[in-house]
Amino acid sequence: MFDYHIHTSFSDDARSTLDEVLATAMKKGLDGIAVTDHFDPFYYDDEYPWVLDLPAYEAALAGAERTCAGKLSFAKGIEIGLIEGEGLAVCEETLSGFPFDFVIASVHHTARAPIHTPEFLRGRTQQEIVEEYFTALLTCIRQYKNYDVLGHLNVIDRYMDSYAPAGLYMDTVREILLQAIGDGKGIELNVSTFRYGMADHGTPTPAILALYRELGGEIVTIGSDAHEARYVGAFIKEGEDILRAHGFRYVTTYRNRAPSFHSL
Ligand SMILES: [Zn+2]
Ligand SMILES: [Zn+2]
Question: How far is the CA of 106 from the centre of ligand 1 (A)?
Fold first, then answer.
């Protein structure tokens, strides 16, 4: 079992230390993990500063790699927040400065506002909300290529009263998936939805996963998106079941930004 989306206290919204995460992963007998703390340049939010202490983070990842040698496959990861504009160049530069193994690209914030806030959501139709979110992602990945998988694709559903009907966004999602596949990139199956009691499936939805498969997509990582050590490895098995049910034969891990495929 591989958990490829984990936050530690290097992220503003997570509490457990990297050591606690490693200890839990070993105790639970996971085969491998990727620690993927947040790096969101140009993220404006009153609640969190969203600043990653990169030198300290990189030193901690390098230390964790040594700690895990021979015990647990450890990937030095990061979850970058794509925002249209100058942030993309900052991501590019940051990733060139350290040998990360694995990079998740997510959209947490558009040019307007953080996607979970009233500034983004209030007074707008579902159509307007999902259109802005998915279009922002598509715009970013048309020009920005330094990532491995797209994080929690339809995460925007989490912040609305109900899941948006697929018809509102499937054309744009098709463009996103074709772009990612054409660039040799993958997607993640984020299983935090189980923990939040939101749905009996992960993110992306079954319909998006099926489309990805139909379009020839093969690269999928599974991540708990744990923000506390006790959730490391949570619902990864359910994620594997979902992938099998959609006809995927492998789950993917990364080393030095190169994918490895493990039979399901
Ligand atoms: Zn995220
Ligand atoms: Zn995350």
Answer: 6
